[in-house]
Write a structure and sequence with these properties.
Length: about 300
């Protein structure tokens, strides 16, 4: 059992909110930080969205335990307050290197000496912003998959200066909050999961952006020919357009930037994937695909 009791999560969006609930549901004292009251105010709606999934996906789901988790979660827009007693800080802000550097500088200046630092970055190299913490030996990566309660991998990856002691502690912490700990022994962008997943998603996006086929047809051929449960555009809906667009823009690749611009139209319309009930597909209240959204189709 680790000494990690107080957990602070930076970022309360689609994945950040899931991380908050995953830790709170497993008995940790959790504080969620975001930059505005408007963003924090969206959390109650996210809890109810998650509740339906927890109820459906977890055979031993406990309604009272979920309510107690919600009641225990604190939120703030003040960084010193957020980290004042943090044993572990998990950062889940957008995939932008300058933003992560700025956030980690502020966290490092305010966090107590005991704090362990973890980034949930999906594609950036943690060592590129480890120094900003001021304590790179206590800094590493803990990567969650979207729909955390169901796809409950916890990839723990060292950065260049990570002390092995903290690597072992965070692996144990991952197990404590219901994850399957996955040790990643050498730093690599994308860890294991995204190292496999992102090239596949990019291939689907390229087929679409280049006018080769429409999203539902690309997904259909993948599902039919491989027996896989979902194609790339269903996965884009699960990941959420915000995350996908940020990663695509950061790549610098013209095709992927064009795809990000297309995703931005969905974001601006409030239809950015499964969490909104619509992305490339529409979804029912249980998250089941209803039908493709034909406005995405090439004419």
């Amino acid at each position: 059992m680790t000494d990690i009791t107080n957990v602070t999560v930076f970022g309360t969006g689609v994945l950040g909110s899931q991380i908050i609930m995953q830790a709170a549901y497993h008995g940790k004292t959790v504080t969620g930080y975001d930059i505005s009251d408007e963003l924090v105010a969206k959390l109650p709606e996210r809890w109810e969205w998650m509740r339906d999934y927890y109820r459906r996906d977890l055979p031993d789901f406990d309604e009272r335990r979920f309510d107690e988790a919600i009641a225990s979660i604190r939120t703030t827009t003040d960084i010193p307050e957020a980290v004042a007693d943090a044993d572990l800080v998990i950062e889940a802000v957008p995939e932008n290197l300058d933003l992560k550097k700025d956030v980690w500088t502020k966290i490092g200046q305010s966090a107590p000496e005991k704090t362990i630092f973890a980034t949930n970055t999906s594609t950036l190299r943690p060592s590129d912003f480890a120094a900003e913490t001021g304590r790179p030996e206590r800094f590493l990566a803990l990567h969650f998959a979207n729909l955390v309660w169901r796809y409950n991998t916890g990839e723990v990856m060292v950065a260049q200066q990570t002390d092995r002691k903290y690597f072992e502690i965070v692996l144990e912490f991952a197990a404590e909050i219901g994850l399957v700990p996955v040790p990643v022994l050498k730093e690599t962008p994308g860890y294991l999961l995204n190292g496999l997943l992102v090239p596949w998603l990019n291939a689907g996006a390229e087929l679409y952006v280049n006018g080769i086929a429409n999203p539902a047809d690309i997904d259909n051929v993948w599902r039919t020919a491989t027996g896989a449960p979902a194609g790339p555009f269903q996965v884009y809906d699960t990941v959420g357009f915000n995350v996908a667009a940020n990663i695509a823009r950061a790549s610098g690749d013209p095709t992927r930037i064009k795809f990000a611009d297309l995703l931005q139209k969905g974001i601006d319309a409030g239809k950015a994937g499964l969490g909104d009930g619509e992305g490339f597909y529409t979804y029912d209240s249980d998250g089941n695909v209803q039908e493709p959204v034909t406005s995405w189709n090439h004419t």
